[in-house]
Amino acid sequence: MAHVLPTGRNFYSLDPRAVPSQIAWQVGQSLAEQSIERYRQETGKFPETVGLTLWGTSAMRTHGDDVAQALALMGVRPIWQSANRRVTGVTLIPLSELGRPRVNVLMRISGMFRDAYPHLIEMLDDAVKLATECDEPLNQNAVLRYFVSERARLLAQGLNDSEALSRARYRIFGSKPGAYGAGILPLIEEGNWQDTNDFAQAFVAWGGYAYTREAFGVDARDEFKQVLRVTQVAIKNQDNREHDIYDSDDYLQFHGGMIAAIRSFSGAAPKAYFGDSSDPARSKVRDLRDESTRVFRSRVVNPKWIESMMRHGYKGGLEMAATVDYLFGYDATSEVLDDWQYKDVAEKYTLDAQVQDFLKQSNPWALQSMLRRLLEAIERGMWAADDDMKQRLLAELAKLGGDLEDWMEMAWQKNLKLKMENEKK
Description:
This protein has helices at 22-43, 56-62, 65-74, 95-98, 111-116, 118-133, 142-156, 161-168, 185-190, 196-207, 221-230, 249-266, 288-300, 303-310, 313-334, 339-350, 353-362, 364-379, 387-424, and strands at residues 49-54, 76-80, 87-92, 104-109, 172-174, 209-211, 216-219, 233-238, 271-276, 284-287.
């Protein structure tokens, strides 16, 4: 990164004008082709519209894997200056070279991506324009095909030709300027949802603002709904193994929210893929259920991980409770868990005597939170637990209520004593 200026006292992570890098372009191409091939193997057809989540932090770490994947799906290539490897523009890859139809791409960007990379938004918008302005058969260009149908729909609604043309090209959506997130977590935290439609409405309300070279955060919730309605694949990538889909709410909000919205508006569950570019030389695209099970077995119920959390006292209990919340949230939006997984978590996190003792001593609120969340999964029909399991969880929750009151009283007395001693000093 010696070419990044200014140097010296200033911190930097990358030269944003060199995104996507040539290495990121190779990774993005691989992810794009694997996604297309996986869909072809599962359905016998090429995907027409793919939904892709783009995060700012990922772009910093990878120098643009996700951006490169979006471009590759549309059949658009970055143009680099030979001297400094900065990207000066994009160009269409001819269909004869591409060897497949162009794929329409819905891009849901994070707030940080919007703030940190406005020039990448312009680049991606240029790619959409190139794909919609070329003279190609509609059956070989899904970007153009959707543009034609959406423009006709908007004209029928009474929009003038210029406005209809601009809005038919909206493919990049995010939160309104100054806002962040996807709106899913508040619903889950408060239990303020009934079904997938509630998640879909929140996902659109928070993320239905279009970004292009000319527009910055234009209210385009109707257009967002329309493209979600025809999206067949929802993809989220992960570029490292320092975290996973069950130790952050962002995965379930952005990826899970998109899956829920597509299912609600289209009436069918999309293919849900998870790209792994932690090893750039061997990137992989997995089904979301496969990724979920892999993380569940390797980390969530791994005795070594649970033991390590127990060495971290209060914070360890908090991490365990957060993991249960994220499991629940991803399942609520995307239906990725089976009954045996809920049962395994219940037995190892809340019913195991040693873990219970640790939580009661270190963080009883975490134990209470996990018991309530597991019972909520039963009540909502997400977990078909037997009556015995339900009664055991209810009994533990009832017993913990008294313990919490006693613990609070002891903590209050302890703090009062410390306060009085400090005042005497």
